[in-house]
Amino acid sequence: MSKGAIIGASTVLVVAVVAAVCVVSFKNSGGGKGEDGELSMSVKSVKAFCQPTDYQQTCEAELTKAAGNASSPSELAKAIFAVTSEKISKAISESATLEELKNDQRTAGALQNCKELLEYAVDDLKTSFDKLGGFEMTNFNKAFDDLRTWLSAALTYQGTCLDGFLNTTTDAAEKMKSALNSSQELTEDILAVVDQFSATLGGLSFGRRRLLGDDGMPTWMSDAGRRELLAAPGPEAAAEFTPNVTVAADGSGDVKTIGEALAKVPPKNAARYTIYVKAGTYKEYVSVARAATNVAMIGDGIGKTIITGNKNFKMNLTTKDTATMEAIGNGFFMKGITVENTAGPENHQAVALRAQSDMAVVLQNCLIQPRKPMDNQVNIITAQGRREHRSAGGTVLHNCTVAPHPDLEKFTDKVKTYLARPWKEYSRTIFVQNEIGAVVDPVGWLEWNGNFGLDTLFYAEVDNHGPGADTSKRAKWKGIQTLTYEDVQKEFTVEAFIQGQQFIPKFGVPFIPGLLPQTQQGRMH
Fold first, then answer.
1. Alpha-carbon span 42 to 153, nearest angstrom
2. Can you give the pTM of this predicted structure?
3. Which positions make up the signal peptide (predicted)?
4. CA angle 263-267-269, nearest 5°?
5. Is the separation of the CB atoms in 59 and 53 below 8 Å?
């Protein structure tokens, strides 16, 4: 699964493709006479550049101011990235001036989160443009996938900043929403332009997003790390990693806490850094920081190595801040470790693991066990937050089992459990080849807030089985899709959706790159 954050394109690529878009636009705009012909080349170029966007007025107004007399596609591309970053940076500064609002603890937490998240957004935008130089036209599809992923992440960070103001008692949310309005529109506009690039060159045979180098290893891994993995291929590779540091709560390792081990990771680490966490219960809040890249964390097994916490929404924390563990640094890998949040339903939102690392290796074939909530509450298995129709991302559950936790088994006739509800307008969730137990309500899907997102979401069920897999009584919303086995094979497998075949095998994690044979019984769980 990918957070949504690797970029790769080139200045040559941007010039060539934007030029192609501009040529099409100019051909459609008529000759050089009349009102349009009197427009300067710069204005014409800006209009052509902004033509495919949803917020043309914002795009044209901001680019006209930022680009001056510039008319070349490369200059306009540089300008739109720069002005978007500047808008977000201004919002960061404005959030710091809202000191009078910090008497409200939840508002204070939300403002701090905004500062952090918006810095990530600026970083992703700047990195995306800085990386415009490493690829050639023959790698366009890879560059497009990466660019769209990174831009989607920048957009998500801005939205998550605003989400943090839920249930605050001040007007900070409206002030931040106003501060971020232009930057969100511009980020969506960049996505639109990139989407147009892809459509313009869609007929050409380019490769897809490639996370590996010519030797078949992850491009973000050092030469030494590549040699070690190449020397020990296969499922046993992860077990043979030599740890850089060993954590043991009983004092038998190098350090006693995971936090101490992470503090030893060199900033912007290029080589794989392996932390071995011995069996035991670690009562700490773990953060794999943005600078802690290429960290592999190996435990002694599920239920043996446990990281536990109980932070929750009722502590006046934002949902983001309740996580027992957060993984932010790119290239993160974890195996054989249980991460839990023991807050319980009475304390409302409580997160165990929050992963926003790109190329974070995660497990397929999950056992999903809804638990007994409080009275008058329901269970929702997923709530995906895709915010823009061009954005990358989504949730795909494949070859999993949905069955009640023992504490719910006696109450399944009273407690409703749903597959998903649309947290954001373009929420995208696909259940494919799962064992769905009777615990799932026949309606299957639940509204979030009235009709919100029901026409624009993307929900689908394909080739599932079990007593809860009958779709005859499912909700009949416009956004619910009818996909074939072949549709999923092309778009929503591990290989098609995140190009997992390119980087997961080298970590020794068992996974299914494609689909199982149709209607196959006897899944993993």
1. 30
2. 0.76
3. 1-20
4. 110
5. yes
Statement to judge: residues 137 and 176 lie in one domain: yes
Q: What SS3 class is residue 489?
A: helix
Total domains present in the chain: 3
Query: What kind and span of H or E run contains 24?
Result: helix 11-28
At residue 129, the pLDDT reads 73
Q: Do the beta carbons of residue 324 and residue 288 sit within 8 Å? A: no
The percent of residues above 70 in pLDDT, for the chain, comes to: 77
- Confirm if 239 and 508 have CB atoms less than 8 A apart: yes
Partners of 420 in the β-ladder: 382, 445
- Three-state secondary structure along 276-311? EECCEEEECCEEECCCCCCEEEEECCCCCEEEEECC
Report yes or no on 5 lying in a domain. Answer: no
Phi-psi region of 330 (alpha: psi -120 to 50; beta: other; left: phi over 0): beta
DSSP for 450-471, written as a single string: TTTTTTT-EEEEES-BSTT---
Q: Same domain, yes or no, for 381 and 307? A: no
Q: 3-class DSSP state for residue 62? A: helix
Whether residue 377 is found in the same domain as residue 520: yes
pLDDT(273) > 60: yes
Cα angle 399, 402, 406 (rounded to 5 degrees) comes to 140
Question: Hey, what are 432's tokens?
Answer: 């494919």
Which long-range contacts (C-beta less than 8 Å, at least 24 apart) are formed by 109-112? 109/164, 109/316, 109/317, 109/318, 109/321, 110/161, 110/164, 110/165, 110/168, 110/172, 110/173, 110/318, 111/172, 111/176
Q: CA 305, CA 247: separation in Å to the nearest integer?
A: 11
